[in-house]
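PROTEIN SPECIFICATION:
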Amino acid sequence: MKIASFNINGIKARAGALTRWLDEASPDLLVMQEIKSTDETFPRELIEDRGYNLHTHGQKGFNGVAIASKLPLEDVTCGLPGDDDDVQARWIEATVTGDSHALRVCGLYLPNGNPVELDTQGQPVAGGKYAYKLAWMARMEARLRDLLALEIPLAVMGDYNIIPQAEDAARPDAWTDDALFRLPSRRAFRRVMHLGFTDAFRAINQAPGHYTFWDYQAGAWSRNDGIRIDHILLNAHAADLLRDCRIDTETRAGEKPSDHVPIWADLAV
């Protein structure tokens, strides 16, 4: 089963880029981020006409996640538990069943967290975007603990807005004070990893210089000034089934591209 994640940066603006990649790559399952569309206005035919079952968790103008699968989507849930007041559309879950295993998939769009607002003691300001990012990650950790207890293959995929290590940025020094690379952010990511997850891409390729995001500004793409912030994390049951994981970098060079590119993994599911 080929599972993929793609921050498309607006379903309507990137319809051509998304469908070209879908036709070429033909993943069995795709989670999307930043669809920037409500459920009612999402152009479902772009996905469903290609043989996918689709479920969206949309929001007007920004955020929004979706999951598409050639296999039936079961037990679909939307929204990250832990804060009933959080209305941002950033989390979706579903189960798909392959030839030999059921796989629980979580698609996420983790908060960016910038600007980093700190008080005089250096702590995140309550109500600020960075405080929201860290609180969201704590809620994610709690949810993943519950899912791990099910002891079934689990893939947690999406735009994490986290640069895990210095080798995941072309210019790590430029990101030192950014919410994507600040130490508290990376510590929160490591706490999730230490629950027993495997970074699927790093399990296959340990070399530096592989990125999933290039800013539209300052010629970042032409200079390969990128960062790796889109990740596929697998629990032990899913990691045992991992056969390959790659980043489709060339998608960034296409017409009207997203600033992200797809990442995919092949599992013996």
The chain has a mean pLDDT of 97.
